[in-house]
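User: Study the chain.
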Amino acid sequence: MNDAICLLVNPTAGRGRGGRYAAPTARVLRDAGHPVRAVVGLDASDALRRAREAVAGGARALVAVGGDGLVSLALHALAGTSTPLGIVAAGTGDDFARALGLPLRAPAAAAERTAAALAAGTATPVDLGRVGDRWFGTVLAAGFDSRVNDRANRMNRPRGRLRYDLAILAELATLRPVPFRLRLDEGPWQELDATLVAVGNGTSYGGGLRIAPGARTDDGRFDITVVGACSRRTLLRVLPSVRHGGHVDHPLVTVVRAARVTLAAAVTTAYADGDPLGGLPLTARTVPGAVRVLGADG
C-alpha cells in the first residue's frame, strides 16, 4: 500500500455513478505515473476501517469516489494526518466538493486536478467542524431541516429528491418554533425561538442549498444561520431563496460567526454532512486546516 493512491469507492453513489467513475479516475492517475489501489468496504464501518488502514499503511493520497457520505468517511480517516484527500464527486449532493470549487460529475477533470496537485506537491488546508469524535465538512443542521432528514430517513419510498420534498411538506404541516439555547465562543447563553439553526463550515447542504452562503473553509469560523420563528406561509416564501443564498436578507434570518457554538434544545436531533449526530445539547468547534485537499480552490 506504500506510496499508492488509494481510491475509496462507493459503487452505489449517485445511482451507480461511483462505480462508473472509478475506472476513468484510476486511468487518469495511472497515466500520470501513480500506482492506484481500490478500497471498497462491505458497509460504511468496513469502508472506514479499510480507509484508515490505507492511511496508516502509507498511502500517498486517499481519493474518495462517491458522494458526501463517502467523503465524510474519508474525512474521518484523514483528519489530523498529513495524507491528502482527493475528491471525485459522484453523489446526488456533493456539497463538500461544491464548497471547494471541485468538478462535479466529471471524473476525468476531477482526477486531472488531483494528479496536477500531486505533481506540484500542493494541497489546500481546509477547516473541518468537530463534535466529540465526529467530523463534518459542510453543515450541521438542527430544527426544521434536521426533522426533514429524520422523516425522510424513515420513509422507504419514493427514492431520490422526491422523498425529501414529501418530507418537507409533511414537516410544514406540523411546523412549530423550537426554544433554543445558543452559546457562541465564550459569550453568554442566548435564548431564542427558532425554526432552524444551521452551523456552516461549508456553504451548502442538500445538493446546493446555500444555507450559509458566506461560509469559508479557511477562516477558522462557522457561519451560523438562524431562521427565527415563522409561519408556514413565510417559510414557504423563504425556502426557494435558499438555493441562491438570498434568504440571509430576510428580516427573520440572522447570521453570526464563531469558532465554537453550543446548541441546546429539547427533542431535537442534529445532522451533519447528512448523517445524524444525536440529540442536543452539543458543542461544535472548528479545527483549522484539519485536512489537506488536492485540487481545491484556495
Notes: The chain has two domains: 5-122, 136-288. The longest helix spans residues 13-31.
